[in-house]
Design goal:
- The protein has eleven helices and no strands.
- The chain is mostly helical.
- Helix 5 (83-96) packs across helix 9 and helix 5 runs antiparallel to helix 11 (183-199).
- It is elongated.
Length: 205
C-alpha cells in the first residue's frame, strides 16, 4: 500500500512557514527547508515543483487558516442578539487569545510575503488579498449593525474601521518583534476594544 504523503507535506509547510516568518522568503532556501523538515529532496519536489510553488501553497494554507480563525470568532458570538455586544464579544475573542497567538508565532506570514516583490508580481499574494477582503466584509458588517443600532444615521466608514482592526494585528506583530515583548498584541487589541466601547457609548466591561 502506498504511503500517505500528507504528513510529510504538512511537515515541509510547517517548517517553511516558520523559516519564512523568521528569515523572509528570499532568506529561506529550499535546501534549508529540506534539512530542517528532516525530509529528502525527492520528497520535497514530489510535493512542490519549485520554491515559487511552495510559496503559493504556503500562502494559500495560511490565508485559509486566517479565514477559518475569522469564521470561528464569528461563530462564537453568533448567538449574541445585541449588535454592539456582538461586536465587542468578537473583539474580545482575539484579545483573550492574543498571548496564545504570540506564543505560537513571532510574526505574520503576510508581512514576509508582501515584502517580496517577485511574489506579489507572480500572483502568490492573491490569497492574502482574498483573506483581507473577507475580514473587511465580515467585520464591517459587525461595525455597521452595531453603529446603526446606536446611531441610525451614522456616516462612519465601516470598511475603514474593519481595516483598522486588520492593521492593528499586522502592526502589533511588528511592534512585538521590534521590542521583543509579545504582550503588545494583547495590549493593542485591548486598546481597540476600549475605543470601540467609547464609540458605541459603552463603558469598559
Amino acid at each position: 500500500m502506498p504511503r500517505d504523503g500528507t504528513a510529510t507535506r504538512a511537515r515541509i509547510l510547517d517548517t517553511a512557514e516558520r523559516l519564512v516568518i523568521d528569515n523572509g522568503f528570499a532568506g529561506t532556501s529550499v535546501d534549508q527547508v529540506i534539512r530542517e523538515s528532516k525530509t529528502s529532496k525527492g520528497a520535497f519536489f514530489h510535493h512542490f515543483t519549485s520554491k515559487g510553488d511552495l510559496a503559493e501553497h504556503l500562502v494559500a494554507r495560511y490565508a485559509a487558516a486566517d479565514i477559518a480563525h475569522l469564521e470561528d470568532a464569528l461563530a462564537q458570538v453568533g448567538d449574541i442578539t445585541d449588535p454592539g455586544e456582538r461586536l465587542l464579544g468578537f473583539l474580545r475573542v482575539f484579545e483573550e487569545t492574543a498571548d496564545e497567538l504570540m506564543s505560537a508565532q513571532s510574526s505574520c506570514l503576510y508581512v514576509a510575503i508582501l515584502t517580496e516583490r517577485q511574489l506579489v508580481d507572480s500572483g502568490s499574494s492573491a490569497e492574502i488579498t482574498r483573506a483581507v477582503l473577507a475580514w473587511r466584509r465580515e467585520v464591517a458588517a459587525l461595525f455597521d449593525e452595531a453603529l446603526r443600532t446606536r446611531s441610525p444615521g451614522h456616516d462612519l466608514d465601516c470598511e475603514a474601521l474593519a481595516d483598522h482592526l486588520f492593521v492593528t494585528f499586522e502592526g502589533a506583530f511588528i511592534l512585538c518583534r521590534t521590542t521583543g515583548e509579545p504582550e503588545h498584541m494583547r495590549r493593542q487589541l485591548t486598546t481597540v476594544r476600549r475605543l470601540v466601547e467609547s464609540l458605541l457609548g459603552q463603558g469598559d466591561r
